[in-house]
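Narrative summary of target 7.
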Amino acid sequence: MPDAGSTRARYRRILRFAARHLAIMWWFELFLPRIGLARLAARGRSRRMTRFARRFHALAVELGGLMIKVGQFLSSRLDVLPPEITRELEGLQDEAPAVPFAQVRALAEQELGMPLDRAFAWIDETPIAAASLGQAHRARLSALDTADTGITDAVVKVQRPGIEAVVDVDLAALRRVGGWLRRVRIVADRVDAPALVEEFAITSLLEVDYLHEASNAERFTAAFAGDARVRTPEIVWERTSRRVLTLSDVSAIKINDVDGLRAAGIDPSAVASTFAAVMFDQLFSLGFFHADPHPGNLFVTPGAVATGATGGAAAPGPDWQLTFVDFGMMGEVPSGTRRGLRRMLIAAAARDGKGLVEAIQELGALLPTADTAELERAMSHAFARFGGMGFAELRDVDPREFRDFAVEFGELMRSLPFQLPEDFLLIIRAMSLTSGVASNLDPAFNLWDSVEPYAGRLVRDERGSAVRDIAQEVLATAGVVARLPRRVDALITRAEEGRLAISTPRLDRRVARLERAVGRLATAMLFAGLLLAGALLRPDDPELGTVLMVASAVPLVLVVVGPILGRRGPD
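Modeled conformation, tokenized:
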């Protein structure tokens, strides 16, 4: 159980880490480019990002709690974070030292209201898994409970003692950091950090409520009832509370155990394609999805009878089943977002760059005013070059080609008002993990092989709504045409009477800003030139070198202070 002193120290340590790296980012990404040293700042960017990711990785492993989950979330943000960060954090596993069983016993008996020897016929004191929020033990139900539930072997999840206080401290620190990020323009232009923290907070608080997880498990089971591809554990409600969860033991072959799958006569590539299809169903059809499908939460059960999870009749399926566990982190896709995702999927399957950009705009990821012509061109180029390749084929592409395209595409994305909606946090995580699991099962896995038939089905399903959309478009166009003669007549009348005025305030403001930018650029170049000239001359001519370096302070002051004075003065 953490005491007040340790929680305060934890809070301060998280804030010190964030403050230090925000200061580094401000210096290299804001200050140096502003004084004309953007190239100098860019030269070591890759090393700085890698160093930050490694330090955060070490901090997360040491502190545990929510820091592990923050790192896992950052590793999935390929949309806003550079590959140096996502690559370093993608292997971050939620593992923690086991809690002594005496503490586990005390908490479980307090929650269940009875001794463990009475609640279970047997419980293994050695955990099968220990994570930052809780740990799991194998157990056997009593004869009476087995008769009532039909379950003999079970898994008991127990929260780590004091974890709620740790979660509260971590969320308080993250909210403080989110407030800081809101004031950093290069971050605020791309992501609403406080909103993301709040979404993360809601998910985290629900994850430490095992009653909520049990309800999620039953809802997921009901959604896939009758689906021979999917299996889920049953909840033992009589032995479940807010901090203790008991469910049937469905352990089988881990989904990333390729050798184990082959030994059981199961084709890993078939598992990859089925897993991708099941995740597509959750995201694009059900709108309720498992947001943490990493290998520790997925098993493949061989020789499974083709029945639904609840024992009902099922459609024909493979002679094995995908078994999902751990429903603490689930996501919901609003109907509007689901429509946009479906259109994105259809456009991606068709290699339609323009359609994909329109779908991104519909989702709210790009402002309607964004100039998307270059983005459409880049998407079309990506589809043309890389669109039909599997992971094995992509590895054979010249790395320089990837690097050149990544630089071009990255600069383009940074120039656009691009920001993913808040509810994408869990969607991105789920899709990132899905891609990683599938490619581990089959290095030649081609996402398009799974996307294209699924997208074809979506197209057939949406034909009816497409007809309605066309009808509405025709009606809207007819209304515009009907009003057009009256508007043209009014415009001509105002022109003849000399009352037609054309105002271009936006253009005037842009020209003024351009003139100021050119002036600042010239001043910054003067500063950089004097500073570098002084540094080069100083070894041979100390006096002249020193004079030049001191003189460089004048244009530096103009660059930094000039915009402030300009804002105070009249336009």
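The first strand starts at residue 120 and ends at 123.
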